[in-house]
Amino acid sequence: MGCQADRFNYNLLKQKIKYIFVVEFKGSMYIMNIDNGNKLNQLLQYWQPGGLLFSSWLNKNGYSAQLIQQYRRSGWFSMLTRGVMYRTGDKLSSYTAISSYNTQLNKKFYVGAHSALELSGFNHYVPMGKPVLMIGYPIQENIPNWLINTYFENELKFFSTKTFVTPQLTTFNKGNCEVLTSVPEQAFLECLMLAPGQYSYIDLYYIMEQLTTLRVEVVQLLLENTDNIKVKRLFLYMAEKAGHDWYLRLDKSKIELGTGKYKLADNGIYLPNYMITIPRELYEYE
Fold first, then answer.
1. How far apart (Å, rounded) are the C-alpha atoms in residues 33 and 19?
2. Who contacts 11 (Cβ-Cβ below 8 Å, separation ≥6)?
3. Distance between CA atoms of 146 and 144, rounded to whole angstroms?
4. pLDDT tens digits, residue range 32-78?
């Protein structure tokens, strides 16, 4: 009788074990449905250090609001802001956070301007203080508040433009994630577009001197499909001044440069070939 009772209790225990398991976290015990436990394991495998999880993506992938709340109460995840979570105790990364945002919500925020050039190995521009990460985004999009207000390892600066009819973007492996970035050819044009507010013209020329490996077909495509006359004239002037081989292979007859004059600096030097007035410092630099 005793043995039969023991077998009954053992079988009953096995049935119970099929439906529950116990997780110990920070000294506390939490009992979860085993299906929910598997979903948590899947989520932890998907999660990238430094990244974020978005409630709308979680809901679409079978994680209910109640289950998400259970994970938070259990200490697995913490709330950054409404609808945005991070792994409890994790240090957020600007690159991984943007990668998470793009991947989960199908966004197109990208690393641009000098930051994209740095990823490609062009490192002349070194601002003082906290490193600046330039983030481009589609003009029809809004910058989410969490991206503005969260403390990251970089100072994020944002820009948006309709300048490029055919934007040239690629992906770059940064740490444990892939980030969307401007190709070097577009990144330098973005720098010119943001000058002189974000960059000085002479600093950008120092970068231009390094750009010996730009792809002439990509430069041609961008210049033919870019409506910013100031940027195109300044780019061509700097490329010619730097003496790059790829500059000689451009078909300039297909690049629209407009007719009006542009003044980029007071008391500067006027260049009749490009109809722009540039800083004397840039003109005299050898």
1. 6
2. none
3. 6
4. 444 566 889 999 999 999 999 999 999 999 999 999 999 999 999 99
Domain regions of the chain by residue span: 21-87, 94-284
Collapsing DSSP states into helix, strand and coil, what is residue 43? helix
* pLDDT (tens digit per residue) in 143-157: 999 999 999 999 999
- Answer yes or no: are the C-beta atoms of 213 and 177 closer than 8 Å: no
Residue 11 has pLDDT above 50, yes or no: no
What distance in Å separates the CA atoms of residue 223 and residue 233, rounded to the nearest whole number?
A: 10
Whole-number pLDDT of residue 115: 96
Question: How distant is the alpha carbon of residue 281 from its chain centre?
Answer: 33
User: Residue 207: how many CA atoms within 13 Å on its side-chain side?
Assistant: 29
**b/e 185-202 (16+ beta carbons within 10 angstroms → b):** bbbbbbbbbbbeebbebe
Q: How far apart (Å, rounded) are the C-alpha atoms in residues 183 and 169?
A: 5
**In whole angstroms, how large is the CA radius of gyration of the chain?**
27
Q: How far apart are CA 233 and CA 209, in angstroms?
A: 17
